[in-house]
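Pilot study result, target chain (422 residues):
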Amino acid sequence: MAKKDPYAALRIKEFNIFLMVRFALVFGWTMQFIVIEWEVYSLTKDPLSLGVIGLMEIIPAFTMALFAGHIVDQKEKRNLLALCIGAFSLISLGLFLLTWDVVVADWSQKTILVCIYALVFFGGFLRSFFGPTIFSLVALIVPKKVYPNAATWNSSTWQMAGVLGPAFGGFAIGWMGVHWALCIVFGLVMLSLLILLQIERKPVLNPKIGEPVVQSLKEGVLFVFKTKAILGAMTLDMVAVLFGGAIALLPVFAQDILKVGSEGFGVLRAAPAVGAFMTMLVTAYIPISRNAGMKLLVAIFGFGLSIITFGLSSVFWISLLALFFSGITDGVSMVIRQTILQIKTPDHMRGRVSSVNSMFVGSSNELGAFESGLTAKLMGASTAVVFGGAMTLFTVITTGVISPTFRKLDLTKDLEAHENAE
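Predicted structure:
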């Protein structure tokens, strides 16, 4: 049966093309992000400046999320993604020019920082469209019965790029400097655009084309809040990421606490993605849909413990292992959450549901970066990370106690229903 085939989704040609696009985009995006983090902290030596990067991205991403979901549900997905990638290339080109001495030789540090923040702000606006578009497109490429398998490989590709992008970015800073590292990012973005054009245009499945914006947005939000499995997964992950993310403070740990330089920074940044990628390879063979709610709670609890260990450590290899195990637990969480979203969401509402998810989970990464930067400014980097991990543990325990329905969530019957429907 298809659902037992660990390579079911990979047997679909367009899905493989989609994964190549996904890989190039995530590799370039994550590489660009850490290069900019490194550059900004090197210019300011202020951990709050790292938080500002997150704040600049979350403001447009959060405020535009629902409207972006409405547009995605109304438009053809392949061409919309191509438009998003084209706009992303302008951001990459702008950052490349901002780090070129020939261009900014006479610019003040403040001017350069403002321009970087402005491009990050534009990137946040753009990101509000990326998530819903990609989420909707993959559902049009693979049949419903292989959604869980597609979610595993899609997330695995994301994590693989998340491993190589930050690691290569860290080494590239030392090898060729920030400027030329950003040139590579621009090349990757353009490559992803060329690959994407190999995917055919897809039909628009929304029966309510031209529906008033307010009515459309209301329908999407109400659906999420009425679907307890989706709401629970989003809320739990949002709070965990908001308080448990230590990634934003890695430049501080790499430069001032562990003292491992840009190469060590790249390795630390890649460690969580290595753990998550390994987890996702395992889940391709061992589905985790049974007792999904309890498994999600246990995974995020383990994530919180890993973050606390990282915050307390001043030894490089211990910090590296802590981040690695945080990636393993986060990988389990990601696969379960993506499977819940794909299975529980109707085709015509994927853009709006994904947008709500980006408000809950995606934006919490950047808001978490600001929270980490602010708390690090107030109480020190190590204390801030430990505090965040402790809040994650508190959230998991509270959710498990007050929500027995979510604790008992099982996706086995949903998967069997999709299998029988096709």
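One observation from the pilot: The chain has a mean pLDDT of 81. A full batch analysis is planned for the follow-on phase.
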